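Repro:
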Amino acid sequence: MKKITTLSISALASAMLLMTGCSTNNGSQETAAQSVSITEQSSASEKVGYSLGFMMAEGNKEAVKDLNLDTFEKGFRDGYEGNDSALTQEQMQEVLMTYQKEQEEQFAKDMQTKATENKTAGTAFLAENAKKEGVKQTDSGLQYKVLKEGTGKSPKATDVVEVNYEGKLIDGTVFDSSYERGEPIEFPLNQVIAGWTEGLQLMKEGGKYEFYIPSDIAYGEAGNAGIEPNSTLIFTVELLKVK
């Protein structure tokens, strides 16, 4: 059953992406689909139809945020029932290609805007942060503050370290935390962002530092999951062990 459902969803998702180019945004009329009530007591065919529709929409809503559900339903019904298409295959392909190109161009513009804004905000933050008591800065622009000085050994770039940490954006948003996961993490120090590789070599086992990492020694213009391009990052790090 799982294999059939997966294949069906894949095929229907392709149909959805084929039909979305026909949409325009009026979305004001209640469709027949909106009046259908689905419960556990509904027939098997009703539940199958609803399940496929829900999963397909949920999986694609971020890709097509301005989808007109009325015209999508019309296109889906025409295609499924074998009715004549309002547009030729060539027209639909052209519409979809144009839509995709416009979305990609808009995404690139949005990312560039965010990159510029984040770079400006990060530079301003670091300039002010450098004035705070206890904050030191290295030649790379890395800033750090000693919260607790360690007494053990310091790692080299080629060492494996065990740490607890919390990563935040400059607005205070936590994007990653070993504390939340309830366990420390191990990694080779030369396989992380440059700000970490440099910063942890300043520490000793048992120490706890706060690092303020400029974007060019963090994730740069590429960004990362949950991290926009050119974001300045703040990490609180406990160095538990050098291995």
